[in-house]
Design goal:
about 190 residues, alpha/beta, Rossmann fold, four-stranded parallel β-sheet, about 50% helix
């Protein structure tokens, strides 16, 4: 019994040690999201997590399209992200002011992005737009509940719908057979 407890403790210590070394960065795992030279569309990219993701993607060599409603914040984010470029002579950056909670705006976003990207849809679309207003459900005004659903849920649903239509039309243009309507996150 004592030797079994000893070996179990030793194995647990080894597992914890490996996890600790991995967290500290000792193991160099391959980058599974290679974005160098690819075009990435980010909604909600002017502040918070979206702005941070855009900077990281710029550092990895991506061309970035930042989408948000506020034009001033978009200008600040564009400056912040473009200064982090891996290779500023090759990378491109732009912004689109739009409200993702409106279906027609998502169509416009994809149209403008495709035109900016030399007639090609973006390689990666990252829906980050959203908001949170922490409070008890019963204390939250109905207007805030509606706003959160419009941006957090409907914004994502409208963008996915637009991407599905775009993916279907792109596949039909190429003559690629398809059995189901795709959920497209790139080419």
């Amino acid at each position: 019994m004592t030797s079994g407890l000893y070996w179990a403790s030793a194995c647990l210590a080894v597992v914890i040690g490996v996890f600790a070394l991995d967290i500290m960065g000792l193991f160099n795992w391959k980058n599974h999201l290679d974005v160098d030279g690819k075009t990435v569309l980010l909604t909600g990219g002017s502040t918070g997590m979206g702005r941070g993701v855009a900077k990281i993607l710029a550092q990895k060599g991506a061309n970035i399209v930042i989408v948000a409603r506020n034009k001033e914040r978009l200008a600040d984010a564009l400056s912040y992200v473009s200064t982090a470029a891996k290779d500023s002579s090759k990378q491109r950056f732009t912004t689109i002011s739009a409200d993702v909670s409106r279906p027609e705006e998502n169509d416009r976003i994809m149209s403008e992005t495709t035109a900016w990207n030399n007639g090609q849809p973006p390689d990666i679309v990252w829906q980050i737009a959203g908001s949170a207003h922490p409070s008890l459900f019963c204390d939250t005004p109905v207007e805030i509940l509606r706003s959160q659903m419009d941006v957090n849920y409907w914004g994502a649903a409208y963008l996915a719908h637009t991407l599905s239509k775009l993916g279907l039309s792109q596949r039909l243009k190429r003559g690629t057979p398809m059995s189901l309507c795709p959920t497209v996150l790139g080419n």
